[in-house]
């Protein structure tokens, strides 16, 4: 029995010794395979995307007003002053050109050179999207590809209100276009890569994440619905690409928040869906022919929602409906809160304005509303934009400067007079207006209005009857 046990032990030991080298070899092979694995890199994606991002060189001229000196150099130093003699660096300056004291010399043409970036969106036709401020007032436009080739380009269409422009490469050959992503699918935290030509250095890549969506407020007159990113964007990046990890265009880099002139990780890009909609109009019409709803409004915040007794924290508050507008014909009323557009949630009035502002005249839209706490759906067709209507009710505290009287028969409070430049005038009150409500409470007379004002609400929404129009004026 002992012999059998010893024999088995010897066999096991023999097999163990025989197998040990093979186990070591297997471990070494696995380790080598792991070492051979490439490190994660953006390089493969960038190799496909970089050819579609271009540098743009612009020469142009713009009109500048040159202020006159009360006394020019000749008057001050005499006609023989060396400052204004031939060869002097001051000879061509406005100080040596004379002119009447004070005022300005009027418009003078000043030449300039500018650098920017762009993205090829149609290789066959040579279409390149960039920022309007890159090519504005351009007399010549040169596009340089990453491989060094240079082309002349011309402007197809510009839209200052969105800061987008479409240019076309002349005689395009062997170009690479980028694929546009659905920017509505973006989420905060998604990875982003910015590509452009900062400071004229050439193709430069930076990376970051989506920091926020639906940003606005950089310019109240513009249509803004920016993607915010912390990917470094610097001077010269304007018009460049913001892409996702699939190498698809999610935005056009446009602006940075830079208090000291440098990058602090707050950059803004125009969403690709807006780019797609607006450039399509530029191709068709040479300009953007945007539609509008025909409403004035403001953001819905928690304080306004409480004042108006609205069960929502986000949306676009309608303060006024323009007569004979698409909104008026569809039955939208002052006091409504727009919460969706074509099924997409609307977070603010600025977001609604930007979405509608990228749609052409005649577009059919479906709006989801909250009216008196109940959901309502309306369908309408966008009309031609007036381009000059006020974007929202001006908000100021107080209604000093308005003289009021009871309308009689408990029909409201009549504004009998408004002092010029008073707080009441600044919020938009006019002589003849009738206050019929405040913060969703019926106002029959001055006593009822005073009772509401005495409660010192943080936001006051006055329901005004102005002729045949009902509107809201907001104060806080």
Main β-sheet: number of strands, strand sense, barrel status? Answer: 6 strands, antiparallel, barrel
Which topology of the largest domain does CATH recognise? Answer: Thrombin, subunit H
Rg from Cα: 32 Å
Indicate how many domains the architecture comprises: 4
Strand content: 35-45%
Specify the CATH architecture of the largest domain: Beta Barrel
Low-confidence stretches: 1-19, 68-79, 98-104, 387-397
The CATH C-level class name of the largest domain: Mainly Beta
CATH superfamily of the largest domain: Trypsin-like serine proteases
Can you tell me the overall shape? elongated
* Count of alpha and pi helical runs: 10
Question: How far is the first residue's CA from the last residue's CA?
Answer: 101 Å
Average predicted local confidence, pLDDT:
79
Main β-sheet, spatial strand arrangement: 1-2-3-6-5-4
Characteristics:
476 residues; alpha+beta; Thrombin, subunit H; Pdz3 Domain; 4 domains; six-stranded antiparallel barrel; six-stranded antiparallel β-barrel; 10 helices; 21% helix; 36% strand; disordered N terminus
């Amino acid at each position: 029995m002992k012999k059998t046990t010893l024999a088995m032990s010897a066999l096991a030991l023999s097999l163990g010794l025989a197998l040990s080298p093979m186990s070591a070899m297997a471990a070494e092979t696995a380790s080598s395979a792991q070492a051979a694995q490439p490190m994660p890199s953006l390089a493969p994606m960038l190799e496909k995307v970089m050819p579609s991002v271009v540098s743009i060189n612009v020469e142009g001229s713009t009109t500048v007003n040159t202020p006159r000196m009360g006394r020019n150099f000749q008057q001050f130093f005499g006609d023989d002053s060396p400052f204004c003699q031939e060869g002097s660096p001051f000879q061509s300056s406005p100080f040596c050109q004379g002119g009447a004291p004070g005022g300005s010399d009027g418009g003078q043409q000043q030449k300039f050179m500018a650098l920017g970036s762009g993205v090829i969106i149609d290789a066959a036709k040579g279409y390149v999207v960039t920022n309007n401020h890159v090519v504005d007032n351009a007399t010549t436009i040169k596009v340089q590809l990453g491989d060094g080739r240079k082309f002349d380009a011309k402007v197809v269409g510009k839209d200052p209100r969105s800061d987008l422009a479409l240019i076309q490469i002349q005689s395009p050959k062997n170009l690479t276009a980028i694929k546009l992503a659905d920017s509505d699918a973006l989420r905060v935290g998604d990875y982003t890569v910015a590509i452009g030509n900062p400071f004229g250095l050439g193709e430069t890549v930076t990376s970051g994440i989506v920091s926020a969506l639906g940003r606005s407020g950089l310019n109240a007159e513009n249509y803004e619905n920016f993607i915010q990113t912390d990917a470094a964007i610097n001077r010269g990046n304007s018009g460049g690409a913001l892409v996702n990890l699939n190498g698809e265009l999610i935005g056009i880099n446009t602006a940075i928040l830079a208090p000291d002139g440098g990058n602090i990780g707050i950059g803004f890009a125009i969403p690709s869906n807006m780019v797609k909609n607006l450039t399509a109009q530029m191709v068709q019409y040479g300009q953007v022919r945007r539609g509008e709803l025909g409403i004035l409004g403001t953001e819905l915040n928690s304080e306004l929602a409480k004042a108006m007794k609205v069960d929502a924290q986000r949306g676009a508050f309608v303060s006024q409906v323009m007569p004979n507008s698409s909104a008026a014909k569809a039955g939208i009323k002052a006091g409504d809160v727009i919460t969706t557009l074509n099924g997409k949630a609307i977070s603010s009035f600025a977001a609604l304005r930007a979405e509608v502002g990228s749609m052409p005249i005649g577009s059919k839209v479906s709006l989801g509303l909250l009216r008196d706490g109940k959901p309502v759906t309306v369908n309408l067709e966008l009309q031609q934009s007036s381009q000059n209507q006020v974007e929202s009710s001006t908000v100021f505290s107080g209604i000093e400067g308005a003289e009021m009287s009871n309308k009689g028969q408990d029909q409201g409070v009549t504004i009998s007079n408004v002092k010029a430049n008073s707080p009441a005038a600044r919020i938009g009150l006019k002589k003849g207006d009738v206050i019929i409500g405040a913060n969703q409470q019926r106002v029959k007379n001055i006593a009822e209005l005073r009772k509401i004002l005495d409660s010192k609400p943080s936001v006051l929404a006055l329901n005004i009857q102005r002729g045949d129009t009902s509107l809201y004026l907001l104060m806080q």
